[in-house]
């Protein structure tokens, strides 16, 4: 018998996706309002990192369009810091 693990604490708050609705491009724009604790000295927008990552993956793997998208979206969860979650 497998006992299910309890959901993470954020599931109740964010699981319904009802806090805010936004598209990927809006979320990328919101990233630019965030000072990333892992790179506080970087003086270019966080969205630039997402585009750089996606472009680097596109050059290295031109046949894997899904991978380009993953590179673009990989840091979007950081926008939760703008809603009070720790980084």
Automatic annotation (TrEMBL):
Pfam families: MIOX. InterPro entries: Inositol_oxygenase. Coiled coil: none annotated. One of its GO terms (molecular function) is inositol oxygenase activity. Binds 2 iron ions per subunit. It is an enzyme of class 1 (oxidoreductase). Its cofactor is Fe cation. SUPFAM superfamilies: HD-domain/PDEase-like. PANTHER family: INOSITOL OXYGENASE (PTHR12588:SF0), MYOINOSITOL OXYGENASE (PTHR12588). This is Inositol oxygenase. The lineage of its organism: Eukaryota, Metazoa, Chordata, Craniata, Vertebrata.
